[in-house]
Design a protein that fits this description.
The structure holds 2 protein chains of 2 kinds.
Chain A: H1 2-32, H2 39-54, H3 60-83, H4 91-113, E1 118-119, E2 129-132, E3 135-138, H5 139-161, H6 163-173, H7 175-180, H8 185-211, E4 213-214, H9 220-233, H10 238-258, H11 267-281
Helix pairs in contact in A: 1-5, 1-6, 1-8, 1-9, 1-10, 2-3, 2-8, 2-9, 3-8, 5-6, 6-8, 9-10, 10-11
Chain B: H1 2-31, H2 34-60, H3 68-82, H4 85-91, H5 97-101, H6 106-128, H7 133-152, H8 173-192, H9 194-204, H10 206-211, H11 216-242, H12 252-265, H13 270-291, E1 295-296, E2 299-300, H14 307-322, H15 349-358
Antiparallel strand pairs in B: 1-2
The chains are: A mainly alpha, B mainly alpha.
């Protein structure tokens, strides 16, 4: 029983982190039909910002704020320079653009910061193990779950009650109609990018504390997970994306437990294989968007 | 007789012109320093890979993020088969006996590599060609992730990360040139064949194509198999060029590079494949020289490593923003002299192609 509880805690923790990754992609996709492959670099930039600012001996909260700010600015610049001129382009073109932006940012990091892994000592007090009953976990597991739940709640409140939130939802539903009714396209898309930046930055911070090593390809795994989670959850559906991310996290832990040890190293293959199966059975995802529209 | 010749030229000129360009460049390059020759070999390998990608993406209109898995399969196939038998016992002791005891020539190895990749393309194609748009792109991406994961943990050798060494380094300029011409010819024959034309029709309007009885999935599957074959050849050429490689050679970097070349050249035409490859090869060569602090075209610069990748990514974004149809705009190269003969067997040829270029 304790053992099962242990796995459940691990699964929920990883699932929450993955859900956080996925929300950043789903939000932008819902509004602008862009699968933002460069989300991984948002996480990486958050990590490198921490690496730089930790050296300044700031209060941890300022480090966190700096990381979020950097990523939000990056997201806004990206939207303005690359995606705004391409608003009408087909979804696959946008995907290729985001893919090249991701590559561009990785290589900029590679040239400026070098390819060697960097150790970041930030928030290490969160990773010391604690025990509740006989279940062992780290404070970070709890923080991850807590932060994810808080952010999802906050996001749904913003989407439901604020003006920009309502405009975002309207734009996600029918962008053309929303524009006709006076929603300003540029503002809506930019705010989707900004919010996505915040979510990605938080995910990046958590990941940095968790792994404590940075490389320019730090965010790759995350973006791959998010990418797939969003698709199987139903592109454009926020709930679907969060569930999709959560599902992949749980699946990963589950396979880690049940796969015999000689197949352990092929765990990811099983995860991606199952995802292919989901894609083939339900090409519109678990929770298809109401319009049923797919690019 | 003259008319027959004219019709042949009209039909094949789009391909012949590209082959001529390659031959002319090769002749010029043979007078230039060795470093230029090496760049051209790399360029020709990329040309084969991009031609493979183009056969599926260009004709079907479905973007694939997973074609580099065919490249990986091609490279490993020829690698495992062509390492000298003497060396196999040391380098790859863990493979099945029939691989351990046989060693075949490079050309055979490359052909087998193409065939194995094609078979793999057929198997994964059966379910995947049913997906369209983003789902297709992501489905293929999942395939790439799986193939990468498998090869990373594939341990033919004790060294790990799927490392293979001592693959004969036989890819020289002439050989790469021959294979590039073969790849272009396959691509051209496919795109002008009945199946290729039907596939192109489905690219323009899938619903209309289905409504007049085109079985889109079936033709996509054929496209996938042909495309996997050519990409597999490219992977094999790469293996015989570098000689030593691991699983991480076939991942996001190549996926990005091949897509970038295709997009920059123009995703809908074979001419785009050649123009894009040429453009990127020249830029890569110049930037590589500058990265080493060498002088080229009389200018010496010292730029940090990674500049080439940054430049390629920037060019790609710029092309997508300012000229989404690519440099060629989806046009093929046409026979430059308009035939005045009234018996021109395919008078509508030029008109249709102009229309494709315009949209």
């Amino acid at each position: 029983m304790t053992e099962i509880m242990q796995h459940v805690v691990n699964a929920i923790s990883l699932g929450s982190l993955f859900a956080l990754f996925s929300l950043g992609i789903a939000l932008i996709f819902g509004v602008a039909r862009i699968i933002n492959f460069a989300l991984g670099e948002f996480l990486t930039f958050a990590g490198y910002t921490i690496f730089v600012t930790v050296g300044f001996m700031w209060l941890p909260i300022f480090v966190v704020i700096a990381a979020i700010l950097v990523v939000v600015i990056l997201a806004l610049v990206m939207e303005r320079i690359a995606f705004r001129p391409l608003r009408e382009a087909p979804a696959t073109t946008l995907l290729i653009v985001s893919f090249s932006l991701s590559n561009l940012l990785t290589n900029i990091l590679l040239t400026t910061a070098g390819g060697r892994a960097k150790t970041v000592d930030f928030g290490s007090q969160f990773v010391t193990p604690i025990s509740i009953g006989s279940v062992r976990m780290t404070l970070l597991d709890l923080v991850t779950i807590g932060v994810t739940v808080t952010l999802i709640l906050a996001l749904s409140l913003v989407l439901r009650y604020t003006k920009i939130g309502i405009q975002l939802r309207a734009a996600a539903e029918d962008f053309g109609m929303a524009k006709l009714l006076g929603v300003r396209a540029n503002v809506v898309v930019a705010s989707a990018f900004a919010i996505s930046g915040v979510l990605a930055a938080v995910a990046g911070i958590i990941l940095t504390v968790r792994i404590a090593t940075l490389t320019p390809s730090f965010g790759n795994q995350a973006v791959i997970v998010a990418f797939i989670a969003t698709v199987i959850g139903g592109l454009g559906s926020l709930t679907g994306a969060a569930l999709g991310g959560f599902f992949i996290g749980v699946l990963t832990i589950f396979l880690e437990v049940v796969l015999p040890s000689e197949f352990q190293s092929f765990r990811d293959s099983f995860v991606f294989g199952l995802i292919l199966v989901v894609l083939l059975i339900r090409p519109n995802g678990f929770i298809p968007t109401p319009t049923g529209e797919r690019a | 007789m003259i008319n027959l010749f004219k019709s042949l030229v009209n039909r094949w000129w789009s391909l012949l012109s590209l082959i001529l360009i390659l031959l002319i460049v090769a002749v010029i390059v043979s007078w230039l320093p060795r470093s230029v020759e090496r760049s051209m070999i790399v360029g020709l390998i990329n040309l084969v890979l991009v031609a493979g990608l183009y056969i599926f993406v260009g004709n079907s209109g479905v973007v694939s993020f997973g074609h580099i898995s065919f490249m990986a399969i091609g490279a490993y196939t020829t690698g495992l088969l062509t390492i000298p038998t003497m060396a196999k016992v040391v380098i790859i002791p863990n493979v099945p006996d029939f691989i351990l005891t046989t060693s075949i020539g490079t050309t055979e190895g490359i052909l087998v590599a193409g065939i194995v990749a094609a078979v793999f393309g057929f198997i994964i194609g059966i379910p995947l060609v049913r997906l369209t748009g983003l789902a297709a792109g992501i489905g293929m991406f999942a395939v790439l992730l799986i193939v990468n994961n498998v090869f990373t943990h594939f341990e033919p050798s004790p060294s790990g990360s799927g490392m293979l060494t001592r693959v004969p380094t036989d890819t020289k300029l002439f050989m790469a040139l021959i294979w590039a011409i073969i790849a272009l010819t396959i691509a051209f024959i496919f795109q002008t064949s009945r199946i290729g034309l039907l596939l192109r029709a489905s690219r323009e309007d899938a619903i209309a194509a289905t409504s007049i009885g085109i079985n889109v999935s079936r033709y996509r599957l054929v496209g996938m198999v042909v495309s996997a074959f050519v990409t597999g050849l490219g992977g094999a050429l790469f293996a015989h060029y570098v000689g030593t490689f691991g699983a991480d050679a076939f991942f996001l970097q190549f996926t990005f590079l091949t897509l970038a070349i295709l997009v920059i050249g123009g995703i809908n035409s074979l001419a785009g494949v050649v123009v894009g490859t040429f453009f990127i090869t020249v830029i890569s060569h110049i930037l590589d020289r500058w990265t080493n602090g060498d002088s080229i075209v009389g200018i010496t610069m010292d730029i940090p490593p990674g500049s080439r990748e940054i430049a390629v990514a920037l060019i790609m974004v710029a092309v997508l923003v300012f000229r989404p149809q690519g440099i060629t705009g989806g046009r093929e190269i046409k026979w430059p002299f308009r035939s005045r003969s009234t018996e021109d067997p395919e008078p509508s040829n030029n008109v249709t192609s102009d229309n494709t270029g315009a949209n």
